[in-house]
Amino acid sequence: MVGRFWAEALGWGVASEEPGVTNLEPVGFVYPDPVAVCIDVITVPEPKTVKNRVHVDLATTSASHQADLVARLMDLGATPADVGQGDVPWTVLADPEGNEFCVLEPREIYQDTGPIAAVVIDCADPRAMARFWDEAMDWTLHEVTDDHAVLRSAKGVGPYLEFLRTPDAKTVKNRVHLDLRPYPGDDQAAEVSRLRALGATDVDLGQGDVPWTCLADPEGNEFCLLTPR
């Protein structure tokens, strides 16, 4: 259900679907085009218990587009969410399983991102997160302050990756995480070693014997390093 919701919400296609896993991509997307960060929806047994530390922000082009998108998303099953945002120009919603996301008011910076403006990660220290993730990926660091850090593909396309300073601490496994994939011809084991040297740590999520490696960034945010493709 969540996979179908997000496919409709973004206007994307279901690239593949098997028991427990739904892969979403823009129609006509060819990996590894950085124009999009694709979404995999995976069934897990754990219920959602706290506000997600990772969420997506959706872009809009006008006030009417924002209002129409909010209405359409609610028709699809989204519900209003209160995460303490107060009186803000964006709208906070939750998908049918309670995963929070924002529908932003029009912002010039997000006019060319596609439907996803940004992937946003709560953190205690944006500067430390910027140091790690700027080295972990070949994206460009656009801005970093005590309160936030902003990265984007070096190609200057697609959504942004943003780190926002928040007071709440991480207490459970993130329900939303990033997957990184080495370039074709890169050595996966060498990439794992490089990420560990940058400050990543190994994590056991009960993944068992799988071809990818589960790691956590310096603030404990889980991510996976996949095999090259």
Automatic annotation (TrEMBL):
SUPFAM superfamilies, per this entry?
Glyoxalase/Bleomycin resistance protein/Dihydroxybiphenyl dioxygenase (SSF54593)
Q: What is this protein called?
A: VOC domain-containing protein
Which residue range or ranges hold the VOC domain?
A: 115-228
Q: Name one Pfam family in it.
A: Glyoxalase_6
CDD domains the record matches: VOC
Organism ancestry: Bacteria, Bacillati, Actinomycetota, Actinomycetes, Streptosporangiales
